[in-house]
Amino acid sequence: MSKCAITNSIRTLRFLNNEMTQKQLAEAIGVTRQTVMAIEANKYSPTLEVAFKIAAVFNLPLEDVFQYHKTE
Amino acid sequence: MTRQTQIKDFLQSISFRELTLTIDLLVSTYIGYFYLSSLYNATQEQLASASWLSSLLLQVVTYSVVLMVLSYLLLTFISDNELNQPLDVREKQIDLVGYKYKAHILQAGICIAIFQYQAQVNDWGPAIEYSVPYLPLHVMVAAFLLAEICSYVMQLFKGRTGDIYE
């Protein structure tokens, strides 16, 4: 069975956006700071809605924030 | 990274929800310890007495309510308005994982209690062998307390490791 993995560039993007904190991002997208931490650490794949909200915060298309890797 | 920095990072990473769960876990563990130690230290007469047993259950309920109320009052003072925020999808998923384990333990407890009751009626099993009256009731109470503890532990573990997919 193939394994799916979604990585992201949120940590870099936060840094490039005036060093936005995890808490600020969490408040902007309506989740907890722990959820942002889990997403950044690739331990949790966000819902489509949250993913779009994150992309909207950074004013970027979704694929610039999240990358999909298919591994065997 | 120094140990001091590690501790600071760890404390900063603790959410209000984790703190609430930890307090719930501590309260449940204490209640479980109180109940089991009361049973362990009870005499045969006390174990056979319905009034002693009902007073013990009343104490368990009273302690639970009082400790929960006190801990939540304490948490209200230190909360960063997190009490008013609804759970996000990830936290709801973690909740469901906790409930799943809780349900399994409760189901097992009920099944063991029913089996125990049947065995007792037929004059065999541990209740007769070790002369423990009301054993099915104790099994159910213990299963309830264990289910609570397990649910809190699983929620804390899943929340911390982030590994919520099962």
Automatic annotation (TrEMBL), chain A:
Keywords carried by this UniProt record: DNA-binding
Top-rank taxon, per record: Bacteria
Stretches assigned to the HTH cro/C1-type domain: 20-65
Keyword DNA-binding applies: yes
GO molecular function, one term: DNA binding
PROSITE patterns the record matches: HTH_CROC1
Pfam family, one: HTH_3
UniProt KW DNA-binding keyword: yes
Protein name, entry field: Transcriptional regulator
UniProtKB/TrEMBL annotation, chain B:
UniProt entry keywords in alphabetical sequence: Membrane, Transmembrane, Transmembrane helix
Residue ranges of the TM segments: 21-40, 52-78, 99-117, 137-157
UniProt KW Transmembrane helix keyword: yes
Domain of life of the source: Bacteria
Transmembrane helix listed as a keyword: yes
Name assigned to this protein: Uncharacterized protein
Organism: Pseudoalteromonas amylolytica
